[in-house]
Design goal:
Elements: E1 2-5, H1 12-25, E2 30-34, E3 39-43, H2 49-58, E4 64-65
Antiparallel strand pairs: 1-3, 1-4, 2-3
């Protein structure tokens, strides 16, 4: 499993955009998103953390690779749905 903290994910549109970006990298990926913790978890036999991180960045978000042992990273929140800088 690969996990990212995405602090600038704030709404359902963000969840859909992230899921779409990840599935463009691997159509078979299982994507689990928790908006409360701002964590995206990906299970994929084909994709890599580097590839998924690049896809999330390309979608306009700022992922930080997460581990199960640490709390979600604190990152600059830049808003939602097109207002990211």
């Amino acid at each position: 499993m690969i996990a990212f903290d995405v602090q600038d994910m704030t709404c359902g549109h963000c969840v859909n955009a992230l899921t779409k970006a990840i599935r463009q990298t691997d159509q078979e990926a299982t994507v689990s998103v928790n908006r409360d913790t701002k964590r995206v978890q990906i299970t994929s036999p084909l994709g890599t953390a580097v590839a998924f991180e690049a896809a999330i960045r390309e979608a306009g978000y700022h992922p930080v690779q997460a581990t199960n042992a640490r709390a979600p990273a604190v990152a600059r929140a830049t808003g939602c749905c097109g207002s990211r800088g």
